[in-house]
Specification:
The chain is mainly α and 193 residues long. It has one domain (8-45, 55-192): Cytochrome c oxidase, subunit III, four-helix bundle (Four Helix Bundle (Hemerythrin (Met), subunit A)). It contains six helices and no strands. Helix 4 (83-113) runs antiparallel to helix 5 (125-156). The longest helix is centred in the N-terminal third of the chain and has 34 residues, at 8-41. It starts with 7 loop residues before the first helix and ends with a helix.
């Protein structure tokens, strides 16, 4: 398929999707680099074996998966002209996204209470990695919550119609990507931590 062909609307649609995929690819490379550095650092003498994540991170994992499930049905609701259902699902995903962030901070609090700090004399290299990896993801989730806010705003302005869902598709794709990245990080730290 020739990407230069089509109407201006089709070209904009393709270019916006392509930009999102480039952004997600660069984020994937960043987290891939961080987790690769984590694996390489396991041979250091200050590495602490058997260090796990506080249980609250498991709950945050459930919450972000539920938020993605809610978003899976938003586009279908718009396509079927069920705006009130789409509103409920968008707000549910937003609340779950905020809940995910709050639970992540409780996870950091759990590290603090156990005496694990990101830097300083009581820090270990793997705890420092946990903080960097999880906080980097949390910043991306903040961007995702902003995206959800924009989706909700545009939904209330009735900008999404059965024939016009590009912004919705892009926002939902980005949120699913954040969910996938968290699942990768969670299982990576759980099994390699």
């Amino acid at each position: 398929m020739d990407l230069t062909q089509g109407t201006p609307k089709q070209k904009r649609r393709r270019s916006r999707k392509m930009l999102l995929w480039f952004a997600m690819a660069s984020m994937t490379m960043m987290f891939g680099g961080l987790t690769s550095a984590y694996v390489v650092s396991q041979s250091r003498e200050d590495w602490v074996e058997g260090l796990g994540l506080p249980a609250v991170f498991t709950w945050s994992t459930v919450v972000i998966v539920l938020s993605s499930i809610a978003l899976m049905f938003v586009k279908k609701s718009i396509k079927n002209d069920k705006r009130s259902l789409a509103t409920t699902l968008l707000i549910t995903a937003f609340v779950l996204g905020i809940t995910f962030g709050v639970l992540q901070f409780y996870g950091f609090k759990g590290f603090f209470l156990e005496g694990f700090y990101p830097a300083g004399s009581s820090s270990t290299i793997n705890i420092s990695f946990y903080y960097v990896i999880i906080f980097a993801h949390l910043l991306h989730v903040l961007a995702g919550v902003i995206v959800l806010t924009v989706l909700i705003y545009n939904h209330f302005k009735k900008r999404y119609k059965p024939s016009q869902t590009l912004g919705l598709e892009l926002g939902i794709t980005f949120w699913h990507f954040l969910d996938f990245i968290w699942l990768y990080l969670f299982f990576f730290i759980t099994f390699f931590g």
